[in-house]
Amino acid sequence: MEVYFVKGMSNSYITSDGVLIDAGVKLNDVVKVAEQHGIKIRYLFITHYHVDHTRYAADIAKALGCAVVVPELDSDVVEGRSRPPGGLAGLLHSLMRVKPVKADVKVKDGDEVEGYRALAAPGHTPGSTAYVKEGAMFSGDAVLSSNGRPVLPPKRYNFDQHRAEESFRKLLDLKPKVIYPGHGTPIKFMP
Ligand SMILES: [Zn+2]
């Protein structure tokens, strides 16, 4: 599986098997990278409801006709039934007028979609989820990268700091070969 980076409000990735991870990137930028590599995007996986990961989800899903996969516990916000709990995230969500998008698949811990395993990594948001395939982990903001080293997101962005720390350790304990984080450069581990 090859992984291609798309730059936006957060990191998005396009995999050679037709999956786009996160949607803080504009449709045109997604299409450009997908076409460059001859990839048809069939799935959009959302890691969590924050605006910098979901802002263009509705546009992308509509234009590409891909199935949208959302963590069950974050789906009320992603589908527009509620605002994110907490001051800053809620405020940003309203200010940026994020368009809701319908989840075609709602995942919980251990579910598998297209060979990707969903791993619940709550704390940053209630439903934060990492997707893992072939030793590649797409961690959303549950594990971020500072110059290739794993770090937690700043406290003020976390819904539940204690659980965020637990999830951070849990994901690292799974010993992925590489983590593709929501922000920062990929984290590569020695074999
Ligand atoms: Zn986030």
General description of the model:
The protein has 191 residues and is α/β, with parallel strands linked by helices. The protein has a single domain (3-188), classed as Metallo-beta-lactamase, Chain A. Helix content is 25%, strand content 27%. It has six helices and 14 strands. The strands form three sheets. A six-stranded mixed β-sheet has the order 1-2-3-4-5-6, with helices on one face. The longest helix is centred in the C-terminal third of the chain and has 13 residues, at 161-173. The mean pLDDT is 94. The site of zinc ion has 5 residues, from loops.
Oligomer: single chain
CATH class: Alpha Beta
Task: Provide the list of bound ligands, each named once.
Answer: zinc ion
Whole-angstrom Rg:
15 Å
Order of helices and strands: EEEHEHHEHHEEEEEEEHEE
- Given helix and strand content, the structural type is alpha/beta
Instruction: State the share of residues found in helices, binned by percent.
Output: 25-40%
Principal-axis shape equals: globular
Number of strands: 14
CATH superfamily: Ribonuclease Z/Hydroxyacylglutathione hydrolase-like
Integer count of domains: 1
CATH architecture: 4-Layer Sandwich
Low-confidence stretches: none
> Whole-Å distance between the termini?
18 Å
The profile of the biggest β sheet is:
6 strands, mixed
In the CATH scheme, what's the topology name?
A: Metallo-beta-lactamase, Chain A
Please count the helical segments.
Answer: 6
Strand content: 25-35%
Tell me the strand order in the biggest sheet: 1-2-3-4-5-6
